[in-house]
Design a protein that fits this description.
Length: 189
Amino acid sequence: MNGFYLVNGSEVHIDMYDDRLTIYSPGGMPDGTQIQEWNIDDIPSTRRNPILADIFGRLGYMERQGSGLGKIIGAYENAANYEPDLTPKFFSNRVCFIVTLWNLNFKASRDEALNEALNEAINEALKPEALDLIALMKSDPTVTQATMIQTLGLSRSKVQRVIKALTDDGYIKREGSKKTGRWVILKEV
């Protein structure tokens, strides 16, 4: 039996992150090779503890020998959100074996959060103040911030925040200098 299992502090660690699950196990490959040097389908199955394997096999808790890594990869490849860069990663050296399983829903949930944030920003930008600013810019493309503040009764910081939001969301842009430039409406609202 590999001596690493008898060393204090050499337990299996499972670390969960938003985008992945990492499993660390003490002890490398039983034959001393490194898993990253192998094609997963060609790895010879070696039972680290044949007595335990036999007991689990008789109890029906163990499937055929050597099928686990291929099943993990197959399950990922058949998943809805699978992309080739999210293939499970296996690493070993003489002292440890590490498996990284990517969260296939992480990108989808991140994209959903980004879309939600974008929609909130657009909704924020299209509040009445934003619509009033766009109307003012349409009627006078050379309107200054000072005139916007005076005409709409808004604070300088509010006008600047709304202009930034409208610019960031692609509704407006400024052409030319601050003094002689003009506002261009890019999207109708």
